[in-house]
Specification:
By secondary structure, the protein is mainly alpha-helical. It has 5 helices and no strands. α1 packs across α3, α1 runs antiparallel to α5 (105-129) and α4 (75-100) packs antiparallel against α5.
Length: 136
């Protein structure tokens, strides 16, 4: 395993998730969240560091698992991995949110679609960055 590329890949995937999360949740879905303000914690913003930490850990694990199954098949491999990981994380995660909390189904479905997009991009990022160290 190429540790340097794993670390770089993990940080790049983390940055990708953070940027996409800002655009998706901070811009695109902001009006929807404003309409549902009574559902969110009043002190939610003070706990966002925990969200960033969990995204960092997930990014490291995402890249680690990608590396363990790495077949050197390029961007298509990364995209496939991103789709599988996205289904694993988002299908149960987002629709469970709908079951547990009084959110509209349309929001859970939107989270699922955006989540699949994010994981697909993360897979592509991992594939572009990670390549095993060349052996002499």
């Amino acid at each position: 395993m190429n540790t340097k590329k794993m670390v770089f890949g993990s940080l790049a995937v983390f940055a990708g998730f953070e940027i996409m999360d800002y655009i998706i949740h901070g811009v695109i879905l902001s009006p929807v969240y404003a309409q549902l303000a009574n559902l969110w914690r009043p002190d939610m913003m003070s706990k966002m560091w925990l969200m960033a930490l969990s995204t960092l850990v997930m990014s490291v694990m995402f890249v680690y698992i990608f590396i363990k199954g790495y077949e050197n098949k390029g961007i298509a491999e990364g995209l496939r991995f991103g789709i599988v990981a996205g289904l694993f994380m988002n299908f149960i995660g987002m629709f469970s949110q709908y079951v547990m909390y009084p959110i509209p189904f349309s929001l859970a479905f939107t989270w699922f679609i955006f989540g699949m997009f994010e994981f697909s991009v993360a897979g592509i990022i991992a594939a572009l960055i990670y390549k095993p160290a060349k052996k002499n």
